[in-house]
Write a structure and sequence with these properties.
single chain; about 300 residues; alpha/beta; TIM Barrel; 9-stranded parallel β-sheet; binds 3-hydroxy-3-methylglutaryl-coenzyme A; binds magnesium ion
């Protein structure tokens, strides 16, 4: 059992959340969201992703958003990068922490990044090497750790293999993603335990989507195993556009409420986080209403 009482919450709403919203939010609103999140006490806020805008149009404004957010000292603002092209775009606006991503399922990887698992890792090698040369921190994600929308069951051995590989390549932390939220606590615990035999627990994070309402229970099981880094999304927004049925991430407000209730520390001001979640929900509502109006006017 990990005796530490501190949990680092990694806020992924501005990236994982917004990448899957049907409503395209203006850059101004994304910037305001991240600035609000920066004042809640969160230490890590994933800001956006430099993937192909053809694949994820929601985040086509990554460079503008990253350039204009307020960078609070002591807060990390990692961005997702799928290849060298994305890395160069990110570096051009001063990014100093990136996240690379692969999956434990071949079928999902093919649909998400148009590559096999091994090809995706080969593609990341020069990115990670360049990042290391530039002093840029690299986080890694493994998706579909508890199930895949295309393949179904995902053997734990495949999760362990990809997580170990990303860690060996130099990812300081590997986040284990239940991309479609099909996991349940006993399975989540067993998966984490197996990965932790190969990658130190201190270098692992968990990332649950909440499709079947299991995310908090899964997080609790993983905390009991010793994990102390938890990804979540303010207001529970999001999902993955290339994972059929993926719903939002676990809500950051719920995670903070549970952790504080257990006597754990996050450094996050829950009231400010709740206010930010409510503000975001209102922005999404406002934008989707104005889309409808514009569509009706055009018709
Ligand atoms: P591809 O089509 O095989 O790439 O896509 P390509 O190299 O053949 O390039 C095609 C076109 O895209 C070219 O443009 C490139 O220039 C352009 P064209 O010549 O046709 O005009 N392009 C780019 N443009 C801007 N930035 C780039 C970039 N790369 C190529 N970085 C690729 C391969 C990886 C690019 C594509 O599949 C992609 O961007 N996929 C991203 C999908 C994605 O973002 N998914 C969601 C994130 S993962 C996730 O949510 C899971 C996670 O939350 C954990 C969990 O829940 O499990 C992390
Ligand atoms: Mg995700």
């Amino acid at each position: 059992m990990n005796p530490s009482n501190h949990v680092r919450m990694v806020e992924v709403g501005a990236r994982d959340g917004l990448q899957n919203e049907k409503t395209l939010l203006p850059a101004e609103v994304k910037i305001a969201l991240i600035d609000r999140l920066s004042s809640t006490g969160l230490q890590t806020i994933e800001a956006t992703s430099f993937v192909s805008p053809k694949w994820v149009p929601q985040l086509a404004d990554a460079a503008e958003v990253y350039s204009r957010i307020r960078k609070v000292p002591g807060v990390g603002y990692p961005v997702l990068v799928p290849n060298l092209q994305g890395y160069q775009r990110a570096r051009a606006v001063g990014v100093n922490e990136i996240a690379v991503f692969s999956a434990a399922s071949e079928a999902f990887n093919r649909r998400n990044i148009n590559a096999s698992i091994d090809e995706s890792i080969e593609r990341f090698m020069p990115v990670i090497a360049q990042a290391q040369a530039d002093g840029v921190k690299v986080r890694g994600y493994v998706s579909t750790v508890l199930g895949c929308p295309y393949q179904g069951e995902v053997p734990t051995g495949d999760v362990v293999r990809v997580a170990r590989h990303l860690h060996q390549l130099g990812c300081y932390e590997v986040s284990l993603g239940d991309t479609i939220g099909v996991g349940t606590p006993a399975k989540a615990r067993a998966m984490l335990r197996a990965v932790a035999l190969e990658v130190p627990m201190a270098a692992l994070a968990v990332h649950f989507h909440d499709t079947y309402g299991q995310a908090l229970a899964n997080i609790l099981a993983c905390l009991e195993e010793g994990v102390r880094v938890v990804d979540s999304s303010v207001s529970g927004t999001g999902g993955c556009p290339y994972a059929k049925g993926a719903s939002g991430n676990v809500a950051s407000e719920d995670v903070a409420y549970m952790l504080h209730g257990m006597g754990m520390h996050t450094g996050v001001d829950l009231d400010l986080l709740v206010a930010t979640g409510a503000w975001l929900a209102a922005q999404l509502h406002k934008e989707s209403a104005s889309h409808v109006t514009r569509a009706r006017t055009a018709a």
